[in-house]
Specification:
heterodimer, A: alpha+beta, five-stranded antiparallel β-sheet, 9 helices, about 35% strand, globular, B: mainly alpha, MetI-like fold, about 75% helix
Chain lengths: ~350, ~230
């Protein structure tokens, strides 16, 4: 079932378009990671999904119903979706009163409130802090209490804005575990913004890439600034000093482009000899990093610019490629896309 | 120095002996100050809150007017209200001139801009995230407003206490609209001025001590109210 459906959504601040999404559909019970550089519109999108700020243009459908942005109608919607901010703010009272806040707003009796709040604090490992002043907690502790506070509301959807961006490694691990647990146990739909690709892999089933407010598709991991130029009958995009890729573009000059990881192929020196005779253009590169992402291996390569490609485990084993190896890299023309 | 010490000792004796004249003056002062602060708070806190959170045409003009009114001299307010309340004035038929009610009217005009401006400043300083946090946790619009007001409570309380301090220590309005009538509208400040003119310092010093004590008590109340949560506000 569709949880959120966004149609032609645009958000404009001070005359600048910060979000421009033609269509996006998110399923109920899913877990989604919003990836992209700072200022790409992740937080703005989360604010819209949390029904905290209406878009200037477009429509949002929540569980198939068009969102009515009048304050009265929003109240019921907000009770189903909770946003945990990147830098959560605590009300100036005790930790337990903070966790009870959402329940109090819902008219839950005091005794039941206390029981639920204590359970939620125990879940995030903050039970011992229940009666401390909340505004004196550290960043990581505040984040954990904020998660407990959101969890106490028993939402259907939890939105997180960079949940581990400003916390230490120890708290990071705790927060990730809590997020994984609540999703597994309660089946809560999860949408979170992050710039940590590995975190996205660990916590999300699907990744959504944003760049300058737009969805960039699956190539969003390989996002580059380049220069489009006409070269004979071809249009090419120059990335760095050495890389020149065939692209389809209407205008020349500065651009942003993506390369789908699946369209990047690797060849060892031996394999390269067999393909060199073909018209395939090869770029010399070096393997910088290999990480497991589910059933696939992600390989970070340096070909003058850092690019990421994906291989199946079997392909990776067969290729015999290791970190530090010199390789030849081919990029399919269909894998490139000028986004701007 | 001997004269000052003698006056101080006599004043302390007067306070200790529960002198009825002195305590009635204190009562009048506290009662008109209390009611003027109450009325100004009931009007000024919501006004300051609205100005802080709402965007509307002419907001800057309203803020400028309020800021200007902070500097209103008490004698100007006294004159202005006198013009309305005097027998030939627009509200002369109400017979309020030279009554405690007249003092309260003048004092409300004096401190309303104080309460509104300082409430506005206190609420404006509150992080926008408080409102959004309340909303996302399921608060209604009004509940979110109350959550923000709760966060601004120390600033608002300070504004009210400052306003009370302003009215209890003012003299111009009490003199011009109250008339310093013994046993009726004589306040601590008008009594002190009168005693000074008569060259009688004992009552003036005694009232001065009470005035300072009231001020001290108000500050203690503020500190207690802030408690451990007021440290970072």
């Amino acid at each position: 079932m569709s949880l959120f459906e966004l149609k032609g959504v645009r958000q404009i601040f001070d005359g600048r378009t910060v979000l421009d999404i033609d269509h996006l559909e998110l399923s109920a019970g899913g877990s989604y990671a919003l990836l992209g550089p700072n200022g790409c519109g992740k937080s703005t999108l989360l604010q819209i999904l949390a029904f905290l700020r209406p878009p200037v243009h477009g429509e949002i459908y929540f569980k198939g119903r068009k969102t009515d942005w009048r304050e009265k109608a929003l109240h019921a919607l907000r009770r189903q979706v909770v946003l945990v901010d990147q830098h959560p703010i605590m009300f100036t009272t005790t930790v337990i009163n903070n966790v009870e806040y959402g329940l109090k707003m819902r008219g839950v009796p005091a005794r039941e409130r206390r029981k639920i709040a204590e359970g939620c604090l125990a879940r995030v490992g903050m039970h011992a802090f229940a009666f401390r002043p909340a505004h004196l907690l550290s960043g990581g502790e505040t984040q954990r209490v904020a998660i407990a506070r959101a969890l106490a509301c028993s939402p259907e959807v939890m939105l997180f804005d960079e949940p581990t961006a400003s916390v230490d490694v120890e708290n990071q691990a705790v927060i990730e575990k809590v997020i994984q647990d609540i999703r597994r146990e309660k089946g809560i739909s999860l949408i979170f913004a992050t710039h940590k690709r590995l975190e996205a892999v660990r916590l999300a089933e699907e990744k959504i890439f944003l760049f300058e407010g737009r969805l960039t598709g699956p190539g969003g991991e390989n996002l580059f600034s380049g220069i489009v130029a006409w070269k004979g009958e071809h249009t090419v995009c120059r990335l760095g000093e050495n890389v020149e890729l065939d692209v389809k573009a209407r205008h020349s000059g500065l651009c942003r482009m993506t390369i789908r990881p699946e369209g990047i192929r690797l060849f060892t020196a031996e394999q390269a000899k067999t393909v060199q005779s073909s018209s395939l253009k090869l770029y010399p590169g070096r393997v910088l990093q290999m990480t497991a992402e589910g059933e696939q291996i992600k390989i970070l390569l340096d070909i003058g610019v850092p690019v990421r490609t994906l291989l199946s485990r079997k392909e990776a084993v067969q290729s015999g490629i290791l970190v530090g190896d010199e390789v030849q890299v081919a990029i399919d023309s269909g894998a490139t896309q000028v986004v701007q | 120095m001997d004269f000052l010490a003698e006056s101080l000792l006599a004043a302390l004796r007067m306070i200790w002996s529960l002198d009825p004249e002195m305590y009635f003056v204190v009562y009048v002062s506290l009662s008109v100050s209390f009611f003027s602060t109450l009325i100004a708070s009931l009007l000024g806190v919501p006004l300051g809150f609205l100005i802080a959170v709402r965007q509307f045409r002419g907001k800057r003009v309203v803020i400028t007017i309020l800021n200007t009114m902070l500097a209103l001299p008490t004698v100007v307010i006294g004159l202005f209200v006198y013009a309305f309340l005097s027998r030939s004035g627009l509200l002369g038929f109400m017979g309020l001139l030279y009554t405690p009610k007249a003092i309260i009217i003048g004092q409300v005009i004096l401190i309303l801009p104080w309460v509104a401006t300082f409430t506005m400043a206190a609420v404006s300083r509150i992080d926008e995230r408080y409102r959004n946090t309340a909303l996302t946790l399921g608060a209604s619009g009004m509940q979110a407003v109350l959550a923000v007001a709760r966060e601004a409570r120390f600033g608002i309380l300070a504004a009210i206490i400052a306003a009370f301090g302003r009215v209890i220590a003012e003299i111009g309005i009490a003199m011009m609209l109250g008339g310093n009538i013994k046993g009726f509208t004589r306040t601590m400040t008008t009594a002190m001025a009168l005693e000074h003119n008569k060259g009688e310092f004992v009552l003036a010093v005694a009232l001065g001590i009470v005035l300072l004590t009231v001020s001290l008590l108000m500050n203690i109340v503020l500190q207690l109210a802030q408690g451990k949560y007021g440290d970072n506000r």
